[in-house]
Amino acid sequence: MGESVSGTAVGGDALVAGSCVAPPDGGSPPPVSTANHAAEHAAERGRALYEDGMYCAEVVLTVANEAAGHRLPSEVMSLGSGFWGGVAGDGSTCGALTGAIMAIGMLGGRTRIDGAWEPSAEAIAQMRSAFLERFGSMSCAGLTAQFGGMEGADRFRHCACLTGETAGMVVRLTGDRGWL
User: Fold this and answer.
1) How does strand 8-9 pair with strand 4-5?
2) Phi and psi (nearest 5°) for 178?
3) At what angle do helices 155-176 and 37-51 cross, to 10 degrees?
4) Alpha-carbon distance 35 to 32, whole Å?
5) CA 148 → CA 5, 17, 82, 119, distances in Å?
6) Cα–Cα distance, 154 to 176 (Å, whole number)
7) Which residues of 139-149 are buried (b: 16+ CB within 10 A; e: fewer)?
8) φ, ψ of residue 10 in degrees (nearest 5)
9) Which pLDDT tens digits describe the chain residue by residue (180 residues)?
C-alpha cells in the first residue's frame, strides 16, 4: 500500500476501479476491484467516451458530473477542452489528472471564499499520489513515451484505458468521501 495522506491510504489498488494499463514496474495490473461498482462503471464509461472522441480531461469531468447526478450542465466538459496531450499538446501534466483535479474541486471544493479548502486539497493530494504510484508519471510526455509519443500506434488504447481508470479513481475517491 502507498503513502498516507491525512490517514487515508493511497496507491496500490485502493482507488483503482478497473485496470487495462500495466503498472510502471512492468508487472501485471492489479486485479479489478468488485467493491465499488460505481467506480467500475465510471472506468468503463470513461474508456468509451475517450474512444468516442472526447479528450481525457473532458472525459473525467463528464463522468464525475454524471456520477454526481448531473449537478452541473453537461457543458462542464468544456472546462477540460484545452487539456489534451498535456496543455494543448505540450506534453505537460496529463489531461486525465488535470480533469481529476477539476472534478474533485467541482464535487468537494469550497463554494465561498471563506469556505474550508482542506477537504478538497487532501482529496487532490490523495488523487495525485495514487495517480503517480499507479502510472509512474504525471506528464503526458512521460506517460506516452513508451508508445512512441502521441503519434504512437498503441498510444490511443493506452490513453483510453488510463483515462477510464482515472475517472473510476475519481468516482471512488469522491464517493468514499460522500461527495456524490
Assistant:
1) antiparallel
2) 80, 20
3) 150
4) 9
5) 34, 27, 22, 38
6) 33
7) ebebbbeebee
8) -130, 165
9) 333 223 233 333 434 434 465 555 555 444 444 348 999 999 999 999 999 999 999 999 999 999 999 988 888 889 999 999 999 999 999 999 999 999 999 999 999 999 888 999 999 999 999 999 999 999 999 999 999 888 877 899 999 999 999 999 999 999 999 999
How high is the pLDDT of residue 13?
A: 40
Q: What is the CB neighbour count within 10 angstroms for residue 2?
A: 16
Q: What distance in Å separates the CA atoms of residue 41 and residue 156, rounded to the nearest whole number?
A: 20
CA distance 103 to 118: 16
Burial of 19 (0-12, 13-18, 19+ CB in 10 A): buried
Q: Residues 138, 131: contact at Cβ < 8 Å?
A: yes
Alpha carbon distance 105, 157 (integer Å):
28
Cα separation, 90 vs 113, in Å, equals 32
- Write out the three cell numbers for 107: 464535487
Query: Coil, strand, or helix at residue 149?
Result: helix
Q: Select from 168, 145, 180, 144 the least CA-distant residue to 48.
A: 168
